[in-house]
Amino acid sequence: MSISAHDPEFVALKTLSAALGRDPHRTQAAGGNTSLKRDGILWVKASGTWLAEAEDREIFLPVALEPLLAAVAENDERAAKATDFVIAEENPLGLRPSVETSVHAVIPFPAVLHIHCVETVALVGRQDAKAVIAARLEGLAGVTWAYVPYVKPGLPLAREIDAVSKPGTNVVILGNHGLIVAAETVAEAGRLIERVSAALASPVRAAPTADIAALEALAEGSPYRLPADPAAHATATDPERLAIARQGTIYPDHVVFLGSGIAVLDAGDTPAALAARSPIAPMLIAVPGKGVLIHKEVLNGGDALARALADVTGRIPPGTPVNYLTVEQEQELVTWDAEIYRRALASAAKS
Ligand SMILES: [Zn+2]
User: Fold this and answer.
1) Crossing angle, helix 129-137 and helix 186-199, to 10 degrees?
2) pLDDT tens across 303-322, in order?
3) 13 C-alpha vs ligand 1 centroid, how far in Å?
4) Of 119, 237, 256, 328, whose CB has the highest number of CB atoms within 10 Å?
């Protein structure tokens, strides 16, 4: 297939998606998703695929827009997975639509980009998120924005976005989650995402360097290893970052890839002992003042989320009241069929 292969807008979508996916400040691992509406078809990112790979393999699949929108309007559960609306004959790889497909459907612009931009996430985790964001976005030319407090991604989020959107809403800020921008063309959407991310940017707190030798000694003989990206250590070397991170989980993909929050190693304790006495071994351990360790069985993408935690918490000023996901909100993510599927793909990709 397809009509899409020669459509300049679709080529542009792939190029932009790959660029967003490769930038750890814009999105991480299999997070984020993009789409393009053409001739009644919603071309949307497949679940579990990485935006960074948009130019290397097929990550988009076609979904029939009208029946999906009708199902969203009726709160029909089939809209949640959207698998019933996939145009199977144009989906030779059998890809499954993103968990956010219904979100893309309800936004009436052709090009829709959803990312977990760390500048946005650092603000939407704050209890004063809406006021802080209003101060940054009001008066920005060509921006009509809406704010949606946290709801579970997928169908509930799509219905919430639909409810708060006005005609022309082209920026949707998602509490404890991320950013959506929409435009008539992919190029316009790309420019909008840069302008909004710049408007939402915060200064980054410096962090002391990690103590790699100490971390290696602690990891020796344990089920833990050093993170792939040394930027992840800042969560543990900066006491202000750790004070924020240790209180809970700020956004959904952290739970999906790394489990609840971060475990903190007490002085004199060891990662092996901590894992052995925990009902579920923590995927991410902070060793205060030294750095972080990652469980060797972490899902593919866990390293990117470990770095994101340092990037996000480093942009939240000390003492800022933060909204954490509740236990129930974390549970609904890990027991959600759509996320179990996405984690299974991440697990398969490791081997
Ligand atoms: Zn998201």
Assistant:
1) 120
2) 999 999 999 999 999 999 99
3) 18
4) 256
Report d(CA 58, CA 93) in Å as an integer.
Answer: 8
Listing DSSP states for 53-75 in one string gives GTTTS--EEEEEHHHHHHHHHTT
Collapsed DSSP state (helix, strand, coil) of residue 217: helix
Which CATH topology does 3-199 take? L-fuculose-1-phosphate Aldolase (3.40.225)
Report how far residue 156's alpha carbon sits from residue 307's, in angstroms, rounded to the nearest whole number.
28
Burial category of 2 from C-beta neighbours within 10 Å (exposed 0-12, middle 13-18, buried 19 and up): middle
Q: Could you tell me how far CA 3 lies from the centroid of its own chain?
A: 29
pTM comes to 0.94
β-strands 291-295, 224-225 pairing: antiparallel
The domain spans of the chain are: 3-199, 212-350
**What is the dihedral sign for C-alpha 25, 27, 30, 31?**
positive
- Look at the alpha carbons of 34, 36, 42, 43 in this order and tell me if their dihedral is positive or negative: negative
| Centre of ligand 1 from the C-alpha of residue 266, in Å | 33
**Quick one: tokens of 295?**
């469980």
CA distance linking residue 110 with residue 46, whole number of Å: 18
| Rounded distance from Cα 44 to ligand 1 centre (Å) | 13
Query: What is the Å distance from ligand 1's center to 114 Cα?
Result: 6
What SS3 state is found at 175? coil
Amino acid at the residue 310: A
Q: Which residues surround ligand 1, an ion (CB under 5 A)?
A: 178
Q: Which has the higher per-residue pLDDT, 227 or 4?
A: 227
- Alpha-carbon distances of 67 from 40, 63, 82, 111, 186, rounded to whole Å: 10, 9, 10, 19, 24
- Please state, as a whole number, how many other Cβ atoms lie within 10 Å of the Cβ of residue 25: 16
Q: Rounded to whole angstroms, how far apart are CA atoms 21 and 53?
A: 8
